[in-house]
Amino acid sequence: MRLGLFVTCLGDTLFPAVGQAVVRLLERLGHDVDFPFEQTCCGQMHLNAGYPDEGRRLAQRLAGVFEGYEAVVTPSASCAGMLRAQLGPERPPVHELTELLVDVLGVEDVGAYYPHRVTYHPTCHSLRELRLGERPLRLLRAVRGLDLVELPNANECCGFGGTFAVKNADVSTAMLSDKLRSVLDTGAEAVCAVDSSCLMQIGGGLSRGRTGVRTVHLAEILSSTGEEPAA
Q1: Cα–Cα nearest to 62, from 7, 21, 123
Q2: Tell me, what's the pLDDT at 227?
Q3: Strand locations in the chain (E)
Q4: Partners of 117 in the beta sheet?
Q5: In the prediction, which pLDDT does 20 show?
Q6: 132 and 161 Cβ atoms separated by less than 8 Å
């Protein structure tokens, strides 16, 4: 399958290793992955900040950038949701990574090896907009060496919410504190999610608290085979 990778602004500027992990994983599974250099922001940030017209124009521009691909894959539930909502039925097929793997490619065991104790945080967009359900967990359970522990109060928001964290900093910080307490209660070495934005929020709190717990995107776990350094 010929796939177009939508890496997202956050991935491009702050988390390039996540996009690289997606490419490694899908190429290992036998698929061609292209990265169109003309891609830009999906417009979600503009829409959230009260500029819907500008946001929609950016989303619609991406429809042309990815025209001709069998599918578009992105390691971000929030950006996948934005593109679907704004482009409508005429859009190129847009899949969050776990949807592509489980629903389209029909694979759960991707041959990954990650010998660490991990807990999974279901981000708001993955949980409530895309309704990913058990897909990420099914993929994680198939990873050799991985000890998956349940996150208490998993469906509670981490407090990021894009511009919410900026406009409502005190509330955001309080929500983050609850999430960090849940993560630490698991005794996990790492917390995993499908959105780098939420991992940035949680990771910042874990780092400031010098907890020793790290964040890792699901794509980085699934791309790990033990032959390269683990994320």
Answers
A1: 7
A2: 66
A3: 2-5, 32-34, 71-74, 94-96, 117-120, 147-149, 190-193, 214-217
A4: 147
A5: 96
A6: no
pLDDT, tens digit, 9 for 90 and up, residues 132-184: 999 999 999 999 999 999 999 999 999 888 788 888 889 989 999 999 999 99
Specify the 3-state DSSP secondary structure of 58.
Answer: helix
* CA–CA distances in Å: residue 7 to residues 97, 133, 154, 189: 11, 22, 26, 26
Average pLDDT of the chain is 92
- CA distance readout (Å), 1 to 31, 78, 145, 214: 5, 24, 29, 33
- Average pLDDT, integer, range 72-83: 93
Q: State the DSSP H helix or E strand holding residue 138, giving kind and residue range, or none if neither.
A: helix 135-141
Q: What are phi and psi of 191, to 5 degrees?
A: -115, 135
Strands (E), 98-175: 117-120, 147-149
- Return the higher-pLDDT residue of 10 and 183: 183
All domains of the chain, ordered by start, with CATH? 2-104 (3.40.50.1860), 117-223 (3.40.50)
pLDDT at 84 over 90: no
Residue owning tokens 């124009």? 57
